[in-house]
Design goal:
Layout: H1 4-11, E1 15-16, E2 21-22, H2 23-26, E3 29-34, E4 40-44, H3 54-66, E5 74-78, H4 91-94
Parallel strand pairs: 4-5
Antiparallel strand pairs: 1-2, 3-4
Protein backbone atom coordinates (compact mmCIF):
# COMPACT_ATOMS: atom_id res chain seq x y z
CA UNK A 1 0.00 0.00 0.00
CA UNK A 2 1.30 3.45 -0.92
CA UNK A 3 1.91 5.85 1.96
CA UNK A 4 1.70 9.62 2.23
CA UNK A 5 5.40 9.64 3.04
CA UNK A 6 6.22 7.98 -0.28
CA UNK A 7 4.07 10.50 -2.12
CA UNK A 8 5.70 13.41 -0.31
CA UNK A 9 9.09 11.96 -1.25
CA UNK A 10 8.09 11.99 -4.92
CA UNK A 11 6.72 15.52 -4.62
CA UNK A 12 10.02 16.71 -3.13
CA UNK A 13 11.53 15.88 -6.54
CA UNK A 14 9.20 18.39 -8.25
CA UNK A 15 10.93 21.74 -8.51
CA UNK A 16 9.46 25.13 -9.20
CA UNK A 17 11.84 26.25 -11.97
CA UNK A 18 11.46 29.91 -11.04
CA UNK A 19 12.34 29.43 -7.37
CA UNK A 20 14.63 26.40 -7.81
CA UNK A 21 13.07 24.75 -4.76
CA UNK A 22 10.79 21.75 -4.33
CA UNK A 23 7.05 22.29 -4.18
CA UNK A 24 6.71 20.68 -0.73
CA UNK A 25 9.11 23.14 0.91
CA UNK A 26 7.60 26.04 -1.00
CA UNK A 27 4.27 25.13 0.62
CA UNK A 28 2.29 24.39 -2.53
CA UNK A 29 0.89 21.05 -1.31
CA UNK A 30 -2.28 21.53 0.70
CA UNK A 31 -3.35 17.92 1.04
CA UNK A 32 -2.83 14.30 0.03
CA UNK A 33 -5.63 11.75 0.19
CA UNK A 34 -5.23 8.05 -0.52
CA UNK A 35 -8.55 6.50 -1.44
CA UNK A 36 -10.05 3.26 -2.60
CA UNK A 37 -8.27 1.26 -5.25
CA UNK A 38 -5.00 3.08 -4.47
CA UNK A 39 -6.30 6.36 -5.90
CA UNK A 40 -4.41 9.48 -4.87
CA UNK A 41 -5.80 12.99 -4.73
CA UNK A 42 -3.39 15.87 -4.31
CA UNK A 43 -4.69 19.32 -3.46
CA UNK A 44 -2.17 21.97 -4.41
CA UNK A 45 -1.77 25.59 -5.35
CA UNK A 46 0.74 27.79 -7.11
CA UNK A 47 2.52 30.89 -5.85
CA UNK A 48 0.20 33.00 -8.01
CA UNK A 49 -2.85 32.44 -10.23
CA UNK A 50 -0.70 33.98 -12.99
CA UNK A 51 2.17 31.51 -12.45
CA UNK A 52 3.72 30.92 -15.88
CA UNK A 53 4.98 27.42 -14.97
CA UNK A 54 1.72 25.96 -13.64
CA UNK A 55 1.38 23.45 -16.47
CA UNK A 56 5.01 22.32 -16.05
CA UNK A 57 4.64 21.76 -12.32
CA UNK A 58 1.27 20.01 -12.70
CA UNK A 59 2.65 17.65 -15.36
CA UNK A 60 5.69 16.88 -13.21
CA UNK A 61 3.51 16.10 -10.18
CA UNK A 62 1.25 13.85 -12.23
CA UNK A 63 4.15 11.90 -13.76
CA UNK A 64 6.11 11.45 -10.54
CA UNK A 65 3.13 10.27 -8.48
CA UNK A 66 1.85 7.97 -11.22
CA UNK A 67 5.33 6.41 -11.39
CA UNK A 68 5.15 5.26 -7.77
CA UNK A 69 4.57 1.57 -7.19
CA UNK A 70 1.04 0.68 -6.04
CA UNK A 71 -0.55 3.98 -7.12
CA UNK A 72 -3.83 3.86 -9.02
CA UNK A 73 -5.59 6.89 -10.45
CA UNK A 74 -3.99 10.25 -9.65
CA UNK A 75 -6.18 13.36 -9.40
CA UNK A 76 -4.80 16.86 -9.01
CA UNK A 77 -6.99 19.56 -7.52
CA UNK A 78 -5.56 23.03 -8.18
CA UNK A 79 -7.04 25.50 -5.68
CA UNK A 80 -6.63 29.17 -4.87
CA UNK A 81 -8.12 29.23 -1.39
CA UNK A 82 -6.22 29.93 0.68
CA UNK A 83 -3.94 31.96 -1.53
CA UNK A 84 -0.30 31.00 -1.17
CA UNK A 85 1.99 33.35 0.72
CA UNK A 86 5.67 33.15 1.70
CA UNK A 87 4.79 32.19 5.28
CA UNK A 88 3.74 28.78 3.90
CA UNK A 89 7.34 27.91 3.02
CA UNK A 90 9.30 25.54 5.24
CA UNK A 91 11.56 27.21 7.80
CA UNK A 92 14.55 25.69 6.02
CA UNK A 93 13.61 27.44 2.79
CA UNK A 94 12.60 30.73 4.45
CA UNK A 95 15.79 30.97 6.45
CA UNK A 96 18.19 29.42 3.96
CA UNK A 97 19.10 26.35 5.98
CA UNK A 98 18.74 23.90 3.09
Amino acid sequence: MITKGEIVGALRQCLDPELNANIVDIGLIYGITIGEERSVKITLTMTSPMCPVTSIIMADVQLRVEALKDVGKVELDLVWDPLWNPEMMSDELKYGRM
